[in-house]
Amino acid sequence: MNEISQNAPSLISEDLTIDGNMESSGSIVVNGTVNGNVSVAKLSLEVSGKIKGNVKADNAELMGVQRGKVQARLLTIHSGAVLKGAVNCEELTVDSGAAISGKFRVKPK
Question: What is the rounded CA–CA span in Å between residue 49 and residue 77?
């Protein structure tokens, strides 16, 4: 069992806005708003969540609004998500109904 699965994720609730950068070696679930860069092992940007800044994650799932660069090993963009920014990843999954714009670089390891 790895460290990520042993610890509960940090939760940014829908009524919370964070102005500043965030860094975690675990998981973050964003239901609220982050105005800043996010560096994390696992990111879940929920439907109500918004990030205005760059994201660096091992595994990122986007269901909300992301405005900024995304660098991830695994990136999943779900239906209803909005992504505006450059993407650099090893594996990319985009569901039908996702709105994406920017430069994409998918380079499997």
Answer: 13
Residue 8: strand pairing partners? none
- CB-side neighbour CA atoms (13 Å) of 88: 6
d(CA 26, CA 48): 21
How many angstroms separate the CA atoms of 84 and 60, rounded? 15
CA dihedral 25, 31, 35, 38 (to 10 degrees): 20
| pLDDT digit string, tens, across residues 21-48 | 999 999 999 999 999 999 999 999 999 9
Output the six-digit token pair for 108: 């499997």
Distances 31 to 50, 92, 107, 109 between C-alpha atoms, Å:
7, 22, 29, 31
Tokens describing residue 73: 């090993």
The predicted model scores a pTM of: 0.91
Low-confidence stretches of the chain (pLDDT < 70) are 1-6
- Angle of CA points 98, 56, 59, to nearest 5°: 65
